[in-house]
Amino acid sequence: MQIEDLAARQGISSRFLRRYFTQEIGMSCLDYIQALRLNKAKELLWETSKSVTEIALETGYGTPQYFSRIFRQEIGMTPSEYRSSWKEKVSGS
Question: Rounded to the nearest 5°, which phi and psi values hold at 54?
């Protein structure tokens, strides 16, 4: 969904929506959406055995390579490394 579509559904301008997010949430709409997508991806990495490709597509990233690059920039490790580290924490190893 595009920001313009969301604003139109709420009967407000996209400019107002962007400004509101920045003022009230403290981040841009795009940053907020990316945070939501990454949080969902982390959840899927923890709770499912879906492939990184499946998770990338399910969370709205066009390619697994782009997803992995963004994930690494924001989280500090690749999705596969993140999944492995989570499994280690859970198993106590």
Answer: -60, -40
**What ranges in the chain are assigned the alpha helix state H?**
3-10, 14-20, 29-47, 52-58, 64-75, 79-91
Report the interhelical angle of 79-91 vs 29-47 (nearest 10°): 50
Which tens digit of pLDDT belongs to each residue from 12-46? Answer: 999 999 999 899 999 998 898 899 999 999 999 99
Within 13 Å and on the Cβ side, how many CA atoms surround 45?
Answer: 25
Burial 32-65 (b: 16+ CB within 10 A, else e): ebbeebbeebbebbeeeeeebeebbeebebeebe
